[in-house]
UniProtKB/TrEMBL annotation, chain B:
Domain called Aldehyde oxidase/xanthine dehydrogenase a/b hammerhead: residue spans: 29-143
A Pfam family the protein falls into: MoCoBD_1
Organism: Neoroseomonas eburnea
SUPFAM superfamilies linked: CO dehydrogenase molybdoprotein N-domain-like, Molybdenum cofactor-binding domain
Entry GO MF terms: iron ion binding; oxidoreductase activity
Annotated protein name in UniProt: Xanthine dehydrogenase family protein molybdopterin-binding subunit
Matching InterPro entries: Ald_Oxase/Xan_DH_a/b, Ald_Oxase/Xan_DH_a/b_sf, Ald_Oxase/xanthine_DH-like, AldOxase/xan_DH_MoCoBD1, AldOxase/xan_DH_MoCoBD2, AldOxase/xan_DH_Mopterin-bd_sf
Length: 289, 757
């Protein structure tokens, strides 16, 4: 029944020093759609909660001069969905972020929280990995950047150093002929957690895949970047053989567990199925782009 | 009873009208007072300490540290709850108090993870929860068993030493056998026999409102209980038995109820809160969390069933045998009469043997859930029938029609059927555009579609109801019943009473009384309340109309028999009676005190004549064969509803039953970890269907009046959950050519089955 200290700093420096000072007892609050639930369930009992939603950089959506985007880590899904250009450039990333929770939860839930919660099943993460997004991190020792896939360390654990806060996601500019997509398998049609999630990002030139990235969720302790699947696609025209090889690479990359949401056999098989379906959507978008 | 005032169905103004529901405005504006909304001055909070083990002997419980924590006002254990010794059964309805006292508070053993061990009342919920952690329980952890197949093995851990089966300690705590004819001769006579074994997991009723109560034990020893239940009189009686306080000292006040589906026909918190309030001298409030609801309140049982049916080549059924093991949970009490009595009831089969076994295992004790047990029996039976029809090359509906029970047949569960309306439900589906529409079986690569049908039966019930009808001084009507309204009983009764009085519907208010303000009324359950309370409300209203006629007779100085009641007014019955201007209800009410006093009455009756309910369903499914996902595309449900007093509610009952059946068939299940702990104690991983998972379900209401009821009412709430499990399994077979005998048909299971030859 210990008291909880709630802080809502207006600058990142204040947030970082408060977070560092709280040591292990501090928790970052963005939308709170994981933290509050975990507190209610008695899974975490933070001594200090640092609400980062009053920090401008963390709630801003910026377009870079070269055509990329910088998305504040605390930007809610619903806000991102209303951006006039983001969804056109990154429809897969947007649909993945918009799958976090319900419509109500979308008013709060953010990609930064989804990443730092470090669930292997977080919906936005495979799409961000496929997009090649980098995160900007600020900590007591200053700023650094990491690829998204380098942030999770295992279920509920990240590679962030003590006092470090994820500030924003940087998405690169889009070459012509690019498209991305995210699909997840859930038993229901909504209000559920991915049994397998798959993000695919393609750049197609004259019908040939020039660049590809594949992210897979819920099939290993962390979200995976599946380079073998990407290799199978690059240089192909997405013929059945290439898709079969990429699907096989996805299945081969899986190191899942049996749990209440799915079995090892099921997840391994479905990872390949989703790769094909996601790639088909990404390719359609790339060809239309 | 006699048929009274059988209405002209066509000429009704209010019966059958979709009137505005009396509870609607409060519910949509958030004003409705549910059990957890009650607060009292000086109120403190109760919390339950629950077993962390699936099976353990309780050596000792030391509450001294908890009692010393600042803010703690009372601690109770099983010692504070009346002990019903194991050697003598004490029944309240279908509930045995030996099991209820042990379910409310563990005595000798913790029988499931989450079983209540002790409870604390403190000045805040947090202190109460903290104090629970200070209670020291010495457990001897025992091997546990969850699944039926494991629990009935000879080497299974035994839950109860006193339970014997065939002379040996066993987890089979009870049996039920129904038979007719000569089963062996019947199978010898058959041209085709199909025998299959089916299994299913426990499923929760999924009501949104967790159990909650506030209890005040006053200084004079009188107890007031505010709680959410399907029967305030059940709350009073069960609390009385479990606390030793006489019923006359307990007043149970029903809150608005946020769903029950049968589960709130027993109690968990009330006796505990009473003893906490008695010990502390303070009002005590207890509210379960969703996790507690999932871990410790009753789901429907899991099942392991074998059904064997024999038929002649022409589809005539000659023999049927069912063996149904149901998973009771930690204490006995599976709803055996559901599968044993209902599975074959709709069919005229000369030789039947139907046997049920009540199997205990280390999970929460089952509670009623819509047509308790019947969907499990129908799952097995209706799938076997589908297979027989297919093998004989017969239309599955034609085969059901051919074998329908008929008027005068003796039902396997005892009575002789009156008019049987089963065939009408089959025929309604057979002629429906859904059943006759072509089905695109392969709309896209990787997608297969199929269509299935199944039928269902439920007994329905009558029983005790009390209804007061009082005329207000300004000439309107207040009706009080003794039943919590879970399915539209208030709206339905308002329609009936307005019709009988011949007045505007909005002039009738229907309220739910508490145990001190209305006569005894049995539980809301078994699809009985609208049947029973409409019957008793009719008698009450007719009595009051009689009183009104007598008042008019006095005023006009003529015989009451010479007066008729019409359109809310007393009129001379004919020219011979004399010429008088009509006297309206308002005028008679205004003159009530001059002419003999207040106008009103209460009628109390044990109602009979609840004819059974029949349903036949048709469903189209689509299977994603690469992901193993089954989606329901179209669903049509035909049911004999007797008379739909309020059609929107009847449709809602049918649609709700089907949706719950869809969840049971496809996605809902209790998952336990290695230690016997429920692994999905919440709505995220206990997957009930959400809106987007189900299509609009089309109800076909067949209004075939029940001749034994004044308005022709038949219970409608249970029958719609009986067919969906089998209907969906049959549709999946139609799509894939593979029979699924294990529920739920979850994606991993479907994919695994598809990979098998």
């Amino acid at each position: 029944m210990a008291d909880i200290r709630y802080l809502a700093p207006r600058t990142l420096d204040e947030a970082v020093s408060a977070y560092a000072a709280a040591a292990g007892a501090g928790r970052i609050l963005a939308g709170g759609t994981d933290l509050i639930v975990q507190m209610r369930a008695g899974m975490v009992r933070p001594g200090t909660i640092i609400d980062i939603k009053k920090i401008e950089e963390m709630t801003a959506i910026q377009e870079t001069p070269d055509g990329g985007f910088v998305i504040g880590a605390a930007v809610p899904g619903a806000v991102l969905a209303e951006h006039p250009r983001f969804g056109k450039a990154w429809p897969g990333v947007l649909e993945a972020i918009n799958l976090i929770g319900s419509t109500q939860v979308q008013g709060r839930a953010s990609a930064g929280g989804n990443l730092c919660n470090a669930s292997p099943a977080g919906d936005s993460v495979p799409a961000m990995v496929a997009a090649g997004a980098a995160v900007t991190i600020q900590g007591p020792d200053g700023r650094r950047s990491l690829p998204v896939e380098a942030v999770p360390a295992g279920p509920g654990r990240t590679n962030l150093a003590p006092g470090e806060i994820v500030v924003s996601f940087t998405l690169p500019p889009r070459p012509k002929g690019s498209g991305d997509a995210y699909l997840r398998m859930i038993p229901r049609t909504e209000m559920d957690i991915a049994v397998v999630g798959c993000g695919v990002n393609l750049t197609i030139e004259n019908g040939v895949v020039k660049a590809a990235r594949v992210g897979l969720g819920a099939v290993a302790p962390t979200v995976l970047l599946v380079e073998d699947a990407a290799k199978a696609l690059v240089g192909s025209k997405l013929e059945d053989a290439a898709l079969d090889a990429a699907a096989a690479a996805c299945s081969a990359a899986c190191r899942p567990i049996n749990d209440k949401r799915g079995t090892i056999a099921y997840r391994t098989r479905v990872a390949g199925v989703l790769l094909k379906r996601t790639a088909a959507i990404a390719a359609d978008r790339a060809r239309g782009a | 009873m006699n048929v009274i005032n059988k209405p002209d169905v066509i000429g009704n103004k209010w019966i059958g009208a979709r009137t505005i529901r009396p509870d609607g405005a409060d519910k949509v504006t958030g004003r409705a007072a549910y059990a957890a909304d009650n607060v009292m001055p000086g109120m403190i909070w109760g919390k339950v300490l629950r077993s962390p083990h699936a099976h353990a002997r309780i050596r000792s419980i030391d509450t001294s540290k908890a009692e010393k924590l600042a803010g703690v006002k009372a601690v109770v254990t099983h010692k504070d709850i009346v002990d019903f010794p194991l050697d003598k059964s004490v029944m309240l309805g279908i509930q045995d108090m030996r099991w209820m006292c042990r379910n409310v508070m563990a005595r000798e053993k913790a029988l499931f993870h989450g079983h209540p061990i002790a409870a604390v009342a403190a000045t805040s919920e947090e202190i109460a929860a903290e104090a629970c952690k200070l209670i020291e329980v010495d457990y001897e952890v025992l091997p546990h068993v969850i699944d039926i197949a494991d629990a009935i093995r000879p080497d299974a851990p035994i839950l109860h030493d006193f339970v014997q089966f065939e002379g040996k300690p066993s987890n089979i705590a009870g049996t039920m056998v129904l038979k007719s004819g000569d089963i062996e001769a019947g199978f010898k006579d058959a041209d085709i026999i199909v025998e299959r074994t089916f299994d299913s997991r426990p499923v929760h009723q999924g009501y949104i409102e967790p159990q909650a109560c506030t209890v005040s034990y006053a200084a004079d020893g009188r107890v007031t209980i505010w709680s959410s239940s399907q029967g305030q009189f059940m709350v009073r009686a069960m609390t009385s038995l479990l606390t030793g306080i006489p019923q006359s000292d307990i007043r149970a006040i029903p809150a608005e109820i946020g769903g029950g589906f049968g589960a709130k026909t027993i109690i968990y918190l009330e006796p505990v809160a009473v003893m906490l309030s008695k010990k502390s001298g303070r009002p005590v409030k207890m509210v379960m969390t969703r996790e507690e609801v999932m871990r410790a309140t009753g789901p429907a049982p899991g099942s392991l069933s074998t059904v064997k049916i024999g038929a002649k080549k022409d589809g005539t059924l000659v023999a049927a045998q069912g063996t149904f093991y149901l998973q009771a949970g930690g204490l006995p009490g599976s709803p055996l009469r559901g599968p044993v009595g209902c599975s074959f009831a709709a069919y005229a089969i000369p030789n039947v043997l139907s046997v049920g076994y009540d199997v205990v295992s280390n999970r929460s004790k089952v509670a009623a859930y819509r047509a308790p047990g019947a969907p499990l029996g129908a799952f097995a039976t209706e799938c076997v029938l589908d297979e027989i029809a297919e093998k004989l090359g017969l239309d599955p509906l034609e085969m059901r029609l051919k074998n329908s029970a008929r008027e005068g047949d003796k039902a396997i569960y005892g009575p002789v059927f009156g008019h049987v309306t089963f065939a009408e439900t089959v025929d309604a589906i057979r002629r429906h555009p859904h059943y006759t529409a072509p089905l695109d079986r392969n709309p896209r690569p990787g997608v297969k579609r199929g269509r299935g049908v199944a039928s269902g039966f439920w007994y329905n019930a009558g029983g005790e109801s009390s209804v007061q009808v009082n005329i207000t001084e300004d000439g309107n009507v207040v009706v009080t019943t003794g039943h919590p309204d879970v399915g539209g009983s208030r709206a339905s009764i308002a329609n009936v009473v307005a019709e009988l009085f011949g007045i505007e519907h909005k002039r009738v208010s229907v309220l739910i009384g508490d145990t001190a303000t209305i006569g005894f009324s049995n539980l809301t359950g078994g699809s009985r309340v609208t049947f029973a309370s409409a019957m008793v409300a009719t008698l009450s209203t007719e009595k009051v109309i009689g009183q009104l006629k007598e008042r008019a007779a006095k005023i006009w100085n003529i015989d009451a028999e010479a007066i008729k009641w019409q359109d809310g007014m007393a009129l001379p019955a004919g020219d011979n009676a004399g010429k008088f201007p009509p006297l309206s209800l308002k005028e008679l009410a205004a003159r009530a005190n001059d002419m003999g006093g207040p106008i009103g009455t209460q009628v109390q009756l044990n109602t009979t004549g609840a004819d059974p309910g029949f349903a036949t369903h048709c469903v189209d499914v689509e299977v994603d064969v690469d992901l193993g996902i089954i989606r329901v595309l179209r669903y049509t449900a035909a049911q004999d509803v007797g008379r739909a007093l309020h059609p929107s509610y009847v449709e809602g009952q049918i649609q709700g039953g089907v949706v719950q059946g869809i969840g049971w068939a496809l996605s809902e299940e209790y998952l336990y970890d290695r230690n016997g702990k429920l692994d999905n104690a919440g709505f995220l991983d206990y997957r009930m269907p959400v809106c987007s998972d189900v299509p609009m379900i089309e109800p076909i209401m067949l209004e075939i009046p029940n001749p034994k009821h004044p308005q022709g009412v038949r219970g409608v709430g249970e029958a719609p959950i009986v067919p969906p499990l089998a209907a969906i399994a049959n549709a999946v077979y139609d799509a894939l050519g593979k029979r699924f005998t294990s529920l739920p048909m979850s994606p991993p299971k479907v994919l695994e089955r598809l990979e098998q030859p």
